[in-house]
Each structure stands twice: as structure tokens, then as C-alpha cells.
Amino acid sequence: MLTGLLLVGLGCGVSVAQPNPTLPDSTVQQAAPHSTTHSEHAANYRQATPQNGEGPIRKNVWLKTNAAAWGLLVQNIAVEVSLSSRYTLSVPVYYSSLNYFRNDVKFRGFGLQPEVRYYPENLTNSSLQPYIGIHASFAYYNVALGGTYRYQDHNKRRPLGGGGLHIGLRLPFSHEGRDTRWGMEAQIGIGAAFMQTDKFENTPNGQRIDSHESTYFGIDNFAVSFYYAFRSPRKKHSSTAHE
What we know:
The chain has a single domain, classed as Porin. By secondary structure, the protein is mainly beta. It is 6% helix and 48% strand.
């Protein structure tokens, strides 16, 4: 939310000295133009400077990757865009097509988990930033853990779907200079997901045994991410000329 600023009109006056009755009219001098006072400078500064770190929206874009997912060999990338001084939209994308060293152990899939975040602290601040948010979940999956069965979304056309709530903390690596572009964040969320799953024998071209529906409740969002911020330049406020 942006803070409204009152427009302050600043003007300069020119005063003329009164004639001295003891001197001829030719000696009457005009006073020098009135210079801007310190209080007028302060009022002009308050007009041009955002108060409480809010002011005009400064567009930010964060490019991120989740190190926790990379630990499971799941490739991922996320883009977060500021919507206002406290709200952002983040869209992470996950993909994996690998077996874990054996054909009967795999965690393949493609997923999206878009989220809207709210930062109680203004996004222009470069210090520690907690946030809360709401997210949706969509994923195609093909999972086998080395046991007798393999599990896959129904007919490869019924992705997992759900959503939930999350909390997190963003930590810039530095509070000064360009290093504020780099940082990390940690996040955890809970939610629900509806799944329609086909159950197969965990062998090459294994036969389908069963198909069932289920609903999952629990932790559905976990990330330890590193980011780089692309920041739009700050707007420069021109000073008012005085005559």
C-alpha cells in the first residue's frame, strides 16, 4: 500500500526596501531576493522522499532455485515478481526424468506450485524478511521406491491437485551495496492434495494392478532456496528551482 503525499507549494518573494527619508530618492536600494529557508527545504524533501520506506512501487524480480529439491536430483527454477510493496507472485517449476541408479527406484515428475506471498515488512527493506502465503499444487508423477509396486498419475492425464498455506523467511546475504541482490530463503507449508493413482508392478512394462483415489493432508511445501534479485532503478526526484 502506497502512502499518499501532500503537495506543498513553494514560492519565492521579492521585497522592496522602503525609502529612507533622510536620503535622496536615488539612494533607495532594492532588497536582495528572499532565499529559500531551511524549513522550506525540509518540506520539499518530505514531498519528494517516500515515507516509511513505501513511496512509488519499485518493481523487483527474483530468480530462484530450491537446493532441497536438487538434493533429490529434481531440476527446478522459480520466478518471483513484486505486485505491490508487500505482495508478490512466485511460480516454481519442478522437473525430473531420472532413475536413482536402478530401474525400480525413481522419482519422476513435472510440477508447478504457484503462490502469492505477503511480506509484513516492506519489500524495499534489505533486512530479514518473514512472509506468509497461499499456494496451489499441480504435478504429474511416476514414483517407485524399490518395492513391489510403482505409482503413477491416472492414465498420465490426471495430475495431483491441491493447495495450502506456508510461512517463510528471506535473508539477504548483505544489507549494503549490490550484494543485497543475493540471498537465501527457507519455507515450509501444509496443505491437501487430491490424487487419482494407478498402481503397477515395479518391473519394466509392469502390468497395472489397481487404480484408486486418495487425499493427502500434511507437509506439501518445503524449500531452502538461493536467489538473485533484479531491481528496477529508483526514480530520481527533481528539485524545484527557485528564483
